[in-house]
Design brief:
The protein is an alpha/beta fold. The chain contains seven helices and nine strands. Helix 1 (33-44) runs parallel beside helix 2 (62-73) and helix 4 packs across helix 5. The longest helix has 19 residues, at 123-141. The protein has helices at 33-44, 62-73, 95-103, 123-141, 157-165, 197-205, 210-225, and strands at residues 7-12, 52-57, 79-82, 107-110, 147-149, 170-172, 178-179, 185-186, 189-190. Bound molecules: zinc ion (ZN). The site of zinc ion (ZN) has 5 residues, from loops. It comes from Ferirhizobium litorale.
């Protein structure tokens, strides 16, 4: 399948001013509101709009206060991956917020409990991250939660196996590039404060420089099978 015909999944984190203390290195993943709205306009007006998907990680309050209304204004929908350990904390979504997102036509998935690197966790802790977050969200949303976004994009074969065992039918990584429709593991491109207009254009159009593509393929293959 040609790259241009595949899906591209754009991943966002926080928008605007954070309402909580950020993790080390997190600030670059927050976008100014004007920049975010400009990117949404680009997506909404793109000829391949139907092949572009949008996700949000971490469950920041900006998901509901900024992102969701802006998506609706443009006829767009997105999937929001929530950290259940932060639900109700200052700066993070609470249960009512999560239900409000659903009522606006948005989808909800798990990002785990405590934003840990799943690839380094002992099996029992990994299982807890996957099953406890799923159960909490199912209690709040009253629907089956079938998708998860892997924190920091760090995974290996054990993580993918544990996700399947915990009942997830879709796992989102951060490997960049394009995604085959309906595959289990779906690579996303995370947009950062430092993402240039050229890099943004490559993400939206599904273009990837050849060397980057080769590295990505090698990395994904190693993580999935070794
Ligand atoms: Zn995250």
């Amino acid at each position: 399948m040609a790259e241009a015909t595949k899906r591209r999944i754009l991943n966002f984190h926080g928008i605007g001013t954070p309402r909580r203390a950020l993790e080390p290195g997190e600030a670059d993943f927050w976008l100014r509101e004007e920049r975010f709205l400009l990117i949404l306009d680009k997506i909404a007006n793109h000829p391949d709009r139907d092949r572009l998907s949008i996700t949000f990680d971490d469950g920041n309050t900006s998901d509901l206060s900024i992102a969701a209304p802006a998506l609706l204004d443009r006829g767009l929908r997105a999937e929001f991956f929530v950290l259940t350990g932060r639900i109700g904390e200052t700066g993070s979504l609470d249960s009512d917020d999560i239900r409000a997102l659903m009522q606006m036509g948005m989808s909800i998935g798990s990002h785990g409990v405590a934003h840990r690197d799943w690839s380094t966790l002992p099996t029992i802790d990994l299982q807890y991250e996957l099953t406890a977050s799923k159960a909490t969200l199912e209690e709040i949303c009253k629907i089956t939660i079938g998708s998860a976004a892997i924190p920091f994009g760090r995974y290996n074969a054990a993580v993918l196996k544990a996700l399947r065992s915990a009942g997830y039918s879709t796992a989102y990584s951060s490997d960049g590039g394009s995604a085959e429709p309906l595959t289990y593991l779906r690579p996303r491109s995370s947009l950062r404060h430092s993402t240039t207009d050229d890099a943004l254009e490559n993400v939206v159009s599904g273009r990837m420089p050849p060397l980057k593509r080769l590295r990505r393929f090698a990395g994904m293959s190693a993580r999935a099978w070794l």
